[in-house]
């Protein structure tokens, strides 16, 4: 017997109200064997019939009471199948934070619309220029190495018919305590600076761009108290120019520095883009 059936029987038993008069009439009819008819006056009933009817009624009520008590007092049935224990939830694994990338050198004067991003070199450095290459800062001559200091100039391969970038590669085997690097771009028509950058920290240099003697001049000056470490470093100037292929033979650069052995100086021109 499940809980639902037990509950219904219990509710029916509690709500049952027996009709004693009706039960007594049925008992009397059964004992006399007579069909149901109008009741006799209470005074005309024989005593034995009344006694027997009372006993039968009491018996029926007692049996009904026992049945109700048994139903009410019977405990609810327990399910035979045990409940399945709840499975604990698995905690989520925290995500591993991403590792930030290495920053690229930032331009000192970024300008929108340049085809080559100003935050990194667009090509590898070329080999050293030979003495007497065209376009040196001092016409007809070049001096690309002085002791621990070496230099080279080239037009970047990303240059096009409207825009160009001139790269100066500087190598030093010893730290430099002073440095001034000058890049001169000849005004061949429509030459206008669009920015510059260098691989050394921007906060270590003062940068200026000026029009001097028919050229756009970029100048990087190392701030007092700062040092250029030994190694290879790149400086670049970016500029627009008149449409068409531009000649760089009149462009040039010059580097003046101080190192452990004293004053150093190199200069030269630019090899064409490849």
From TrEMBL:
Q: Which domain of life is it from?
A: Bacteria
Source species of the chain: Streptomyces subrutilus
Annotated membrane-spanning segments are: 50-72
Q: Which UniProt keywords apply?
A: Membrane, Transmembrane, Transmembrane helix
Region (Disordered) residue spans: 82-151
**Record field: compositional bias (Low complexity):** 83-99, 121-142
Output this protein's name. Answer: Uncharacterized protein
């Amino acid at each position: 017997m499940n809980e639902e059936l037990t509950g219904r029987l219990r509710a029916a038993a509690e709500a049952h109200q027996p009709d004693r008069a009706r039960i007594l009439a049925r008992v009397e009819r059964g004992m006399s064997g007579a069909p149901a008819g109008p009741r006799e006056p209470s005074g005309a009933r024989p005593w034995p019939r009344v006694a027997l009817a009372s006993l039968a009624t009491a018996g029926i009520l007692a049996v009904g009471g026992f049945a109700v008590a048994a139903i009410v007092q019977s405990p609810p049935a327990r399910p035979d199948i045990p409940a399945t224990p709840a499975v604990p939830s698995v905690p989520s694994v925290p995500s591993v934070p991403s590792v930030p990338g290495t920053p690229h050198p930032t331009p000192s004067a970024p300008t929108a619309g340049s085809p080559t991003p100003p935050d990194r070199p667009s090509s590898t450095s070329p080999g050293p220029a030979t003495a007497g290459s065209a376009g040196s800062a001092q016409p007809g001559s070049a001096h690309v190495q002085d002791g621990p200091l070496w230099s080279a100039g080239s037009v970047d391969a990303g240059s096009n018919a409207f825009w160009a970038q001139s790269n100066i590669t500087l190598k030093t085997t010893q730290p430099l305590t002073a440095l001034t690097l000058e890049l001169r771009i000849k005004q061949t028509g429509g030459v206008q600076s669009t920015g510059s950058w260098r691989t050394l920290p921007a906060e270590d240099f003062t940068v200026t761009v000026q029009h001097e003697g028919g050229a756009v001049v970029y100048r990087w000056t190392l701030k007092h108290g700062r040092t250029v470490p030994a190694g290879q470093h790149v400086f670049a100037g970016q500029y627009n120019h008149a449409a068409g292929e531009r000649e760089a033979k009149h462009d040039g650069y010059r580097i003046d520095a101080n190192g452990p052995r004293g004053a150093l100086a190199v200069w030269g021109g630019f090899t064409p883009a490849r």
